[in-house]
Amino acid sequence: MSELAPSILSADFTHLGEQLHTLEKSGTKVLHIDVMDGAFVPSISFGMPVIRSIRKDCGMFFDVHLMIQEPVRYIREFVEAGADSITVHVEACSDIQKTIDEMKQYRIKVALSVNPATGVDAVLPYLDQIDMVLVMGVEPGFGGQKLIPQTLEKVKELDRLRKEKGLSYQIELDGGVNRENLTKIIEHGTDIAVAGTAVFRGNIRENVRDLQEVIAGAS
Ligand SMILES: O=C(CO)[C@H](O)[C@H](O)COP(=O)(O)O
Ligand SMILES: [Fe+2]
User: Fold this and answer.
1) Active site residue 174
2) Which residues form the active site (predicted)?
């Protein structure tokens, strides 16, 4: 069955601890953590201190999405802060293989991401080395955007490729996920659907329950 990964980008940071407890009590297993550097993307979010702090009191799987230039420089620090999985953007790495090799030194899941304008070709040479491909459903940098429907074709292609090649990488779709489009997203082959706005706007418990119901119905 597919998994929901709430993104804390849309959380209320004055109540972050409580909101994370609510997610855990609602059955959330994967927490999506968006790190932005103001260089690879226009916005700046947060970094290791926040991850280190929430790690102390949170049992969820930390799915860290690095939207930073040359992430190879910081892999060790994010692992030490508590990342269980690290996703880097192919567009942000001058040497993708070196970045994968660096990530593989640690006991974490290794993932590559592609922006809406980047084709599946960019990750093809690495598919047998990685645990997940993150397909951006929106331009990276901000929450609350609308899903670009064409990005789902990449999900479909990655699903086809893993069957054809006998590989087991997961496919994550990030951005613009809501109750209305979630079934379609899953039907295209998504294993992990990231949702920020759709989880944190309004009642978190009800939102998670509703999204999980859609997932259960689609799987
Ligand atoms: O990586 C991201 C933005 O770059 C976020 O994970 C994504 O946008 C989630 O937020 P929303 O569900 O509001 O689109
Ligand atoms: Fe993200």
Assistant:
1) yes
2) 34 (proton acceptor), 174 (proton donor)
Token couple for 71? 């992430």
Domain that holds residue 46: 6-218
Q: pLDDT (tens digit, 9 = 90+) per residue, 108-133?
A: 999 999 999 999 999 999 999 999 99
Q: Given ligand 1 and candidates 7, 65, 118, 132, which is best to mutate, with the most ligand atoms within 8 Å of its CB?
A: 7
Domain for residue 42, yes or no?
Answer: yes
pLDDT digits (tens, 9 = 90+) for 196-218: 999 999 999 999 999 999 999 99
CATH of the domain at 44: 3.20.20.70
Q: Does residue 100 form part of some domain?
A: yes
Q: What is the pLDDT of residue 160?
A: 98
Q: Number of structural domains, the chain?
A: 1
pLDDT at 219 over 80: no
The answer to whether residue 1 is domain-embedded is: no
**132 lies in some domain:** yes
β-pairing, 61-67 vs 85-89, is: parallel
DSSP string, 48-71: HHHHHHHHTT--SEEEEEEE-SSG
- State yes or no: is 191 an active-site residue: no
